[in-house]
Structures are given as structure tokens and as C-alpha cells.
Design goal:
Strand order of the largest sheet: 1-4
CATH topology: Alpha-Beta Plaits
Largest sheet: 2 strands, antiparallel
Number of strands: 4
Order of helices and strands: HEHEEHE
Oligomer: single chain
CATH architecture: 2-Layer Sandwich
Helix content: 10-25%
Distance between the termini: 60 Å
């Protein structure tokens, strides 16, 4: 009789699932999600390229100068680039929905 009573108990309870994606689900505090960069502050020193374990940040050559570029498709969100940045232009924000149909949208 124990199994039957357990089944009845579970059937009368409200579901414990969340309404995501119909209602937003807040990310926990201190979540390391989307990487953002303030390009106005960035000095393109390349410190982030040296510490990135997944090589998500790299140099791109443009005519007479080179700049740092981040591909979030490769990022593991470890936060090492944020810690090593000398001008603090990198930041991790709680935005965790990164799905996109265009790969170009993942490059910052």
C-alpha cells in the first residue's frame, strides 16, 4: 500500500517545474554568463588572449593595427580574462540566453 499512497500524494501536489521560457528564470547571484566588453576602454593589450584556456579571445589583424576579438561560441565563461584585464573593460553579466541563428552575433 506504500507505493500506491506515494503515487496519490505526488499526483495531488502542484508541479515543481518552472515556467521557463514563457516566464523569465532569474540567474543565481554570481553567475558567470555572457562576457561583455567596453570597446572604448579596451587598449587591445592582449592579456586576455594569453590566459584564455579555450582560445575564445584572439587577435584579428586590421590593415595597420590589430585588435582583440572574442568568440562566445568557444568561451567556457571561466572569467580569467576578466581577472587579468588591466583596464577592467571586461565584465561577466547574468545574461545566460546566448542562443542565436547567426554565428556573427557571438563575436564581440
Amino acid at each position: 500500500m506504500g507505493l500506491l499512497s506515494e503515487i496519490i500524494k505526488k499526483m495531488t501536489k502542484k508541479p515543481s517545474t518552472e515556467k521557463y521560457p514563457y516566464a523569465p528564470s532569474p540567474a543565481p547571484q554570481k553567475t558567470r554568463a555572457r562576457l561583455t566588453r567596453d570597446k572604448k576602454i579596451c587598449i587591445n593589450c592582449g592579456a586576455c588572449t594569453l590566459v584564455c584556456p579555450s582560445k575564445a579571445c584572439y587577435f584579428v589583424q586590421e590593415k595597420d593595427k590589430r585588435r582583440v576579438e572574442f568568440n562566445l561560441a568557444y568561451c567556457t565563461f571561466c572569467g580569467q580574462c576578466v581577472e587579468v584585464c588591466p583596464v577592467k573593460c571586461l565584465k561577466m553579466v547574468n545574461e545566460y540566453e546566448l542562443a542565436t541563428a547567426k554565428k556573427e552575433e557571438l563575436i564581440i
